[in-house]
């Protein structure tokens, strides 16, 4: 275990390097931080930190920079989550409160996260598998054509057209709508198939075929793979950090174009806590020079999706973690109230 003093030296090195982009020397540390020891002692501490792999010397200058291992220790032990100021919190609330639907919420969240952190923002749409049914609407467009509208607790709206083999009367439609909602409203999507499987048998023989068709379309909507959608923004922010990427920014941009990679980065939504993956902790080769900060968001205690940011390992971790957590909290509140 590192001594408290060496932990303080590491904290100072990380803070200075993130702020100045320059390798940090012992003289600068003693001038800028109240470490209470001589430059010679700081040099010894830096030598010990380097030997243990927490800092490295990028070239022959006297300065050192944090390694992935050093950033990891900083995040785990030394970095508190920096709370946002009152004006920042008001700005988040005002910006997100104007959203008109779920697409608008996600779009605004991506732009806001990218602006607050000056990194690449990634927001996953709420997953249908973790959602509950708020309402099912059935509308007659023609005697044998219906529209099914599924509304979730997270504000997501899915519409499907249904062509029936025979005309379906308004009375039967109202009856199906009422019975369907009485069974599925407030229930998890994963529970719906079991809840509606015997519904056709409760209708007249002539209507059972149409009821079965409607249920088939509803169940298809619940399991469609399109649920794993996400939005990305602020990619241009990476160009400000060109010198933070050892060779070229291209592998990072290519990785960010692959939504499968991004979904893996975000991880399972049920892991709703804050996750910080640094450098080589990211499995994708193109992202080993980046850090990824993610957190779950949801309309209640349980996360329905993830959001986060991708940036260089030389990142303001306390500020980034604070912004990501605050935005997730506000998005969750909006979903709960929508």
Give short descriptive properties of this protein.
single chain; alpha+beta; three-stranded antiparallel sheet; 17% strand; elongated; five-stranded antiparallel sheet; 338 residues
How would you describe this structure to a colleague?
This protein is α+β, with helices and mostly antiparallel strands. It is built from 12 helices and 10 strands. The strands form 3 sheets. It has a 5-stranded antiparallel β-sheet, with helices on both faces. The radius of gyration is 26 Å and the shape is elongated. It starts with a helix and ends with a helix.
How is this structure best summarized?
The protein has 338 residues and is of the alpha+beta class.
Topology:
Layout: H1 4-20, H2 26-32, H3 39-51, E1 55-56, E2 65-66, H4 68-78, H5 86-97, H6 102-117, E3 120-124, E4 133-142, E5 145-152, E6 157-163, H7 170-184, H8 192-196, H9 205-223, E7 230-233, H10 250-257, H11 259-266, E8 275-278, E9 290-297, E10 305-312, H12 317-337
Antiparallel strand pairs: 1-2, 3-7, 3-10, 4-5, 5-6, 8-9, 9-10
Helix pairs in contact: 1-3, 1-4, 2-3, 5-12, 6-12
